[in-house]
Amino acid sequence: HKKPREAMRRGGLRSNGAGETPRLWAAQASEIWDMAKIHLRDNNPRTHSLEQIEQISESMRRWGWTIPVLIDPEGVVIAGHGRVRAARLMGFSECPVVIARDWTEDEKRAYVIADNQIAENSDWDQKKLRSELRSLVASEFDMELIGFSEEDLQKLVIETERSTQAKGVDEVTMHRCPTCGRLSRKQTDVV
Whole-model pTM? Predict the structure, then answer.
């Protein structure tokens, strides 16, 4: 059945009269909208736990609002539901947005799914990830801002340290400070 496949392939294209050309930008510029004008999409199939919303909030506290929310002209969120919920949790009154104008309902519906699913189709370069994580742990960066569970961080960081253990160096584990709750490396001598 080539027909549905062809329709999917052409879904994001607009005719320019001489053939199909890809749409380059969803919006020409970002804008700041009052949070009261922003509406979460009722049929958003992506769910966000309270724990994840709190993680997004912590990220926004640290780095600010780095990615505008994609909305339609009526203020309905197409991409950025988690950011909007985190901002509301934090009491933000305004929201940076880009507006997808002239999108059909099917294009909006499809993008809500694509924006989430396509990101999940990527993978980590484990060697580079471990290297970056080790550097962050060594600099005592707040590892909770990264989004990995404590268990996953243990596995990723400890696994890279096992080779040094085999050489009789120090044993390295992740340790949570009882006072501030931050994760850091804890080294003990291997006997």
Answer: 0.72
